[in-house]
Design a protein that fits this description.
The protein is mostly helical and 395 residues long. The longest helix has 35 residues. It is globular.
């Protein structure tokens, strides 16, 4: 029996699943549920919300990226068919329990989520082992740390330590930000060179080696300090340093008019949101009138939302044999909606657009969901169609 194209590569199946979850879940939680969850009791709905964003929508997006990128980097065969279906089946139970906020079933959901992440780790680790390469080990290392953060969240919920759960969720957010930083070092080179020379005959852009890992290193130090010394003001200064590192990295986008191409600008916006987010977290700790939620949402909705949508657009086109010269109009709309969702969510926290409060929570969730819905409407047919000499664009 012939295998359907959507099962021929990880991102073809996993990106649509992540988009479906991102499009549907906010409506259920905010618009229909009114910020409540039917079976949430000991665990606050806000922590369930953060968990499902990170380990649900973003977790499946990460699986799609790594499941396709690592085989491309190592020139090994990508997982296909039943292997992808089985991996997706490990992800689904946690999403069902998460949408209900079923505290009593949290440990079971955690078992499936950790099994999903560990299976993904085996998948990409096997590709690295086949080529005897350690070049891509940082991705495996951080994926395993992401798995450990999931275990920490579930343990904290089970033991009733909500403060620990909050720190573990922030650690998971930082881990994903480091993964974004690592991924951007690979993707930016390809995307910016194609923006400068669509024919791909020259490579005029070369990244500055000193900028490639500084942001990730500073986020790592901040995360470690916040986990083990949460009351120390050192956390604030490390957060400011992380923000500065992301701003320094914005120099990679000083490429002239080509920066306004949607795929280039969206990656730059993700970097900028990350810089402002860490500055906001540091300012909060130092006593400025900024709520902690402002920095966290700058990172989760702004930085990671833009980064995920950029990868959906770029890899979604290139891995289905299409180029970035003429993006579908839905790609531009989805990108704009994602950036606006981040701004709407955080601007009232800084007393800008105060008239949006308290409606900015729901409005931002709707914009975020519609962004994924618009992408899905345009790109799902690409994922289901046969390949067209897939070019790859993961660096």
């Amino acid at each position: 029996m012939r295998q359907p194209p959507i099962l021929s590569e990880a991102l073809r199946l996993f990106f649509p699943l992540a988009a479906m979850h991102g499009a549907v879940w906010p409506f259920l939680w905010v618009v229909i549920g009114g910020y409540g969850l039917p079976f949430a009791d000991a665990v606050p709905a806000s922590q369930w919300h953060a968990h499902e964003m990170l380990f649900g929508t973003y977790g499946m997006a990460l699986a799609g990226f790594l499941g396709s990128a690592v085989p491309e980097w190592t020139d090994t065969e990508s997982a296909q068919g039943r292997a992808l279906v089985h991996l997706a089946c490990l992800w689904v139970p946690g999403r069902i329990i998460g949408v209900l906020g079923a505290d009593a079933w949290s440990l079971l959901a955690g078992f499936f989520d950790m099994a999903f992440l560990l299976a993904l780790s085996v998948l990409i680790g096997r590709a690295m082992l086949a080529r005897r390469t350690v070049k891509h080990l940082p991705f495996l290392f951080w994926l395993l740390l992401f798995t450990a953060a999931e275990a920490g969240v579930r343990y904290a919920w089970w033991s009733g330590d909500l403060e620990l759960a909050s720190r573990m969720l922030e650690a998971a957010l930082c881990i994903f930000t480091v993964l974004f930083s690592l991924s951007a070092t690979r993707i930016n080179v390809v995307v910016i060179n194609l923006a400068l020379d669509p024919g791909g005959e020259t490579t005029p852009y070369r990244p500055h080696p000193g900028r490639q890992h500084m942001a990730g290193a500073m986020v790592t130090l901040y995360m470690a300090a916040k986990l083990f010394f949460p009351q120390s003001d050192v956390c604030a200064w490390l957060s400011l340093a992380a923000g500065a590192a992301f701003f320094d990295r914005l120099a990679e986008w000083f490429i002239g008019r080509a920066v306004f191409k949607t795929e280039v600008l969206l990656l730059g916006l993700g970097n900028a949101f990350a810089g402002v987010g860490f500055l906001a977290l540091g300012a909060t700790r130092l006593g400025f009138s900024v709520t902690p939620a402002a920095g966290l949402h700058l990172l989760s909705i702004g930085a990671l939302g833009c980064a995920i949508m950029a990868v959906f657009i770029i890899a979604g086109l290139r891995h289905t044999g299409r180029d970035l010269t003429h993006l579908p109009w839905q790609a531009h709309v989805a990108a704009a909606l994602m950036a606006i969702a981040g701004l709407v969510r955080i601007l009232p926290e800084f007393d800008f657009a105060a008239t949006l409060s308290p409606y900015h929570h729901g409005l931002s969730a709707v914009l975020w969901a519609v962004s994924f819905g618009v992408w899905l409407q345009s790109f799902l047919p690409f994922m289901r169609a046969p390949g067209m000499d897939d070019a790859g664009v993961c660096g």
